[in-house]
């Protein structure tokens, strides 16, 4: 509303008709204030003046953006699984698929297991060896499929080159890379005269995760 | 004997009637297809001493050989295959192995080797096989069937080597084995026999004379004379020498002779036990036909052939198992005009006879 319109004086010809008189501006202001004060309910707590005065209201928060490029250059980001698969780092090239190439790995693994079990003497109890083997890594072991629900897997023998969550990848003496699912098969691993049977159905973890997993004791396992 | 029908496992009885002179009669193929016969019993009514021709035929049944603890991979021996399996027919069966508990082996004359294995043995052996047809819910029995005359099973072939390594190094299967060869007799089996502990056996013959018995009246080829179930029951009672009087003072058996009945003054029951070849049974049937051609008081004769209870195969290589009883038998009721009634009976875990 236009302030000037409210404070304008009443035209002269309406004074006699209405029977009122405009007061001067100072008197009118004082009258207005007094009138408002009398008519509005006054709460002692509310400060009317501060409520009616203009205040600035914050509608949103935004902080100024800092420069991040400096921080990232220190840490090396890893690749996620999709990028790894695209780069095919899990695949072994055909020229590398030779049994002789993996025999040194097998020797390394044997040494590792012997050190793990503190020297694998024939007098060691199978229990202690078994406990250690549960948490051991099997890359490089010579494993054989002893029993399987699928007859064509039975009898395959080879050096384990890669262990995934659900499969073993082994390379056989005929330089063939075979993928054997862990489920529904029993594998056998032999080290220095200790033969262990691994029930694949219970072994379906990634090699790294298996070292942290606790295994329950079960009576007999049926495939 | 009344049995609750809903508690009885099913049994099959197939009855057929035809004539030996009819060219479409399948009696020869039906006899031929039952490879492993354990017992033959013949019932001759109104017959006193055993007829001499019959006796000579019974005595000329082929002898069979029993090998103790034969490792089954020996059946895949190259020399044995060439001399015995590829020429003529070898009948072999594992002896004293129960088909529902242990592993059983059968070698059929057409060169098929059939292994009936329990689950653990099958998973260790590593040769392709099928679950048994008679598994209930969970697979506990598997059947491995290989054709030794097939090209893939030729010695040195891939399938042959797989089975050989499986039986030799993975699953060490050893059972007692009864073996018979037609026509060569024992000569072609000598190479296999000489390596193991073997013994030769003749089929065991026993005669039994019955007197004063009631028997169902069997006019020639009459359809409604007597129903097969009661006739077979009476026949079994005769074979087992169970009295069919059903007197009120005896509680042993309530078997009765089916109506209408007549009385016989005497009858002869002859039985032969062993591993009997179908060819010998053929000759016996021909001999009985000759016997019936002469005029007799009673113009019929019956021949019952029992198969092995523990054999993994039954007629023509069909799977056989044992539920409550593993019977697979057939009864041939012959009349003097060259007609016959044939009843083929099997138990629950069996395929339909031909």
TrEMBL record, chain A:
SUPFAM superfamilies (UniProt xref): Rof/RNase P subunit-like (SSF101744)
Keyword Secreted included in the entry's annotation: no
Coiled coil: none
GO biological process: rRNA processing; tRNA 5'-leader removal
Molecular-function GO term, any one: ribonuclease P RNA binding
Superkingdom assignment: Eukaryota
Primary location group: nucleus
Keyword Nucleus: yes
Cited Gene3D superfamilies: Ribonuclease P/MRP, subunit p29
Keywords: Nucleus, Phosphoprotein, tRNA processing
GO CC terms in record: nucleolus; ribonuclease MRP complex; ribonuclease P complex
Pfam family, one: RNase_P-MRP_p29
Family classification: Belongs to the eukaryotic/archaeal RNase P protein component 1 family.
Complex and partners: Component of nuclear RNase P and RNase MRP ribonucleoproteins. RNase P consists of a catalytic RNA moiety and 10 different protein chains; POP1, POP4, POP5, POP7, RPP14, RPP21, RPP25, RPP30, RPP38 and RPP40. Within the RNase P complex, POP1, POP7 and RPP25 form the 'finger' subcomplex, POP5, RPP14, RPP40 and homodimeric RPP30 form the 'palm' subcomplex, and RPP21, POP4 and RPP38 form the 'wrist' subcomplex. All subunits of the RNase P complex interact with the catalytic RNA. Several subunits of RNase P are also part of the RNase MRP complex.
Function: Component of ribonuclease P, a ribonucleoprotein complex that generates mature tRNA molecules by cleaving their 5'-ends.
Protein name: Ribonuclease P protein subunit p29
From TrEMBL, chain B:
Database matches in InterPro entries: RNase_P_Rpp40
Record's signal peptide: none
A single Gene Ontology CC term: ribonuclease MRP complex
GO MF annotation terms: ribonuclease MRP activity; ribonuclease P activity
Coiled coil: none
Any one of the GO BP annotations: tRNA 5'-leader removal
Entry protein name: Ribonuclease P protein subunit p40
Gene source species: Lates calcarifer
């Amino acid at each position: 509303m236009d302030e000037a319109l409210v404070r304008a004086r009443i035209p002269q010809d309406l004074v006699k008709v209405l029977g009122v008189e405009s007061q001067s501006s100072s008197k009118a202001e004082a009258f207005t204030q007094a009138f408002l004060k009398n008519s509005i309910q006054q709460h002692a707590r509310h400060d009317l003046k501060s409520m009616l005065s203009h205040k600035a209201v914050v509608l949103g928060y935004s902080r100024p953006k800092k420069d991040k490029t400096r921080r990232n250059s220190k840490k090396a980001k890893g690749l996620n699984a999709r990028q790894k698969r695209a780069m095919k780092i899990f695949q072994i090239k055909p020229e590398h698929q030779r049994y002789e190439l993996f025999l040194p790995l097998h020797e390394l693994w044997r040494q590792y297991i012997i050190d793990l079990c503190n020297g694998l003497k024939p007098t060691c109890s199978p229990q202690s060896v078994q406990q250690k083997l549960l948490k051991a890594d099997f890359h490089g072991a010579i494993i054989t499929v002893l029993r399987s629900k699928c007859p064509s897997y039975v009898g395959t023998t080879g050096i384990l080159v890669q262990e995934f969550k659900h499969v073993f990848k082994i390379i056989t003496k005929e330089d063939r890379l075979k993928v054997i699912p862990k489920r529904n098969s029993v594998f056998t691993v032999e080290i220095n005269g200790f033969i262990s049977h691994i029930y694949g159905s219970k072994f379906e973890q990634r090699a790294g995760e298996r070292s942290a997993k606790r295994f329950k004791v079960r009576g007999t396992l049926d495939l | 004997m009344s049995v609750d029908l809903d508690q009885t496992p099913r049994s099959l009885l197939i009855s057929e009637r035809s004539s030996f002179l009819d060219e479409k009669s399948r009696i020869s193929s039906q006899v031929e297809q039952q490879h492993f016969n354990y017992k033959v019993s013949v019932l001759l009514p109104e017959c006193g001493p055993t007829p001499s021709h019959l006796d000579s035929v019974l005595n000329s049944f082929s002898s069979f050989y029993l090998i103790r603890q034969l490792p089954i991979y020996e059946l895949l021996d190259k020399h044995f295959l060439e001399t015995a399996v590829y020429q003529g027919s070898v009948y072999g069966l594992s002896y004293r192995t129960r088909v529902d508990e242990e592993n059983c082996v059968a070698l059929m004359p057409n060169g098929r080797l059939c292994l009936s294995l329990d689950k653990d043995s099958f998973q260790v052996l590593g040769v392709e096989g099928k679950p048994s047809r008679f598994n209930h819910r969970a697979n506990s029995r598997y059947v491995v069937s290989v054709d030794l005359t097939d090209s893939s099973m030729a010695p040195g072939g891939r399938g042959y080597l797989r089975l050989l390594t499986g039986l030799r190094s993975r699953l060490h299967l050893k059972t007692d084995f009864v073996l018979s060869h037609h026509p060569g007799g024992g000569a072609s089996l000598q190479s296999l026999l000489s390596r193991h502990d073997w013994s030769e056996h003749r089929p065991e013959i026993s005669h039994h004379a019955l007197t004063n018995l009631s028997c169902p009246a069997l006019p020639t080829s009459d359809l409604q004379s007597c129903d097969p179930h009661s006739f077979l029951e009476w026949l079994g009672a005769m074979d087992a020498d169970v009295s069919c009087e059903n007197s009120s003072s005896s509680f042993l058996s309530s078997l009765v002779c089916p109506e209408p009945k007549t009385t016989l003054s005497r009858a002869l029951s002859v039985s032969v036990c062993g591993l009997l070849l179908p060819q010998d049974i053929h000759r016996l049937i021909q001999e009985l036909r000759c016997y019936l051609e002469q005029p007799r008081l009673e113009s019929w004769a019956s021949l019952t052939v029992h198969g092995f209870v523990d054999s993994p195969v039954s007629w023509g290589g069909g799977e056989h198992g044992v539920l409550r009883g593993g019977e697979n038998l057939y009864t041939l009721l012959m009349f003097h005009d060259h007609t016959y009634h044939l009843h083929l009976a099997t138990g629950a875990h069996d395929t339909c006879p031909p």
